[in-house]
Amino acid sequence: MFWPGLANVAAGVAIDLSSITNVTVSPDRKTTSAGGDARWGAIYSQLDARNLSIVGGRVFDIGIGGFALGGMRIFVLASGEVVNANASQHSDLYKALKGGGNKFGVVTRFDFKTFDFGTFWGGLLVVPTHNSKRQLEALQDFTKASGAVTDNYSAIESIHAYNSPGQTALGIGNGGRYVWATGMFANNATMLAKVNELAQATSTDLSTKEGNYTFSNVFQPIPRSITGNL
């Protein structure tokens, strides 16, 4: 299906891939193939039943395309030719896609390296905002240890979220929009506290505005398994 005028480039078209949602696990359990508009939740549902997993997104009800454009895929060129783009086939296209996104054609299938799930622990702990100083200090300590003397693959997020007046649940529902910015700095509790202080000030300013929104400040440490000794 074609939708003229909805593309993110001038005189382009937006192509609806919503019918390409198939998910298939290979017989040897080493590869999971998913259609261009498959959702992360549909993939994980099939993999969980087999005690398998892939490296993927964490929001179940969104499409895989934006996050997955760094992996192997089946690609339709402007000429209509269907090709594999990966590290060994059409490698120039494979590299271009990592930074160019969907500007070079249409991705109709993604192939993910699949691994045994094994033992995995995860969870959510909610604490009041007046305890944020202790939480940020704990985050600093965890990040210093993560990948150094504990689990190389451990990860944690510290999310400081504030609702608009009258909103009862955190998060953006279907049909909502995200506006976000990112930054990077050294792992230091004092720095984390200052960033959070600025975020709280922004939230206070927003609290005088009408609307249904959630404002959040998220700290995501990069594990030592990625940064090494940086």
Structural class computed from helices and strand pairing: alpha+beta
The largest sheet has its strands arranged as: 3-4-8-6-7
Q: Which radius of gyration do the C-alpha atoms yield?
A: 21 Å
What proportion of the residues form beta strands (DSSP E)? 15-25%
The gist of it:
With 230 residues, the chain is an alpha+beta fold.
Report on this structure.
It is built from 6 helices and 11 strands. It starts with a strand and ends with a helix. Helix 4 packs across helix 5. A hairpin with a 5-residue loop joins strand 6 and strand 7 (82-85). The chain has helices spanning 40-48, 65-68, 91-100, 132-145, 189-206, 224-227; strands at residues 2-4, 13-15, 23-25, 31-35, 52-53, 72-76, 82-85, 106-113, 115-116, 158-163, 214-219. The chain is globular. A 5-stranded antiparallel β-sheet has the order 3-4-8-6-7. The chain has a two-stranded antiparallel ribbon with strand order 1-2. It has a two-stranded antiparallel sheet with strand order 5-9. The model has no long low-confidence stretch (mean pLDDT 78). The chain is α+β, with helices and mostly antiparallel strands and 230 residues long.
List strands and helices in order, with pairings.
Blueprint: E1 2-4, E2 13-15, E3 23-25, E4 31-35, H1 40-48, E5 52-53, H2 65-68, E6 72-76, E7 82-85, H3 91-100, E8 106-113, E9 115-116, H4 132-145, E10 158-163, H5 189-206, E11 214-219, H6 224-227
Antiparallel strand pairs: 1-2, 3-4, 4-8, 5-9, 6-7, 6-8, 10-11
Helix pairs in contact: 4-5
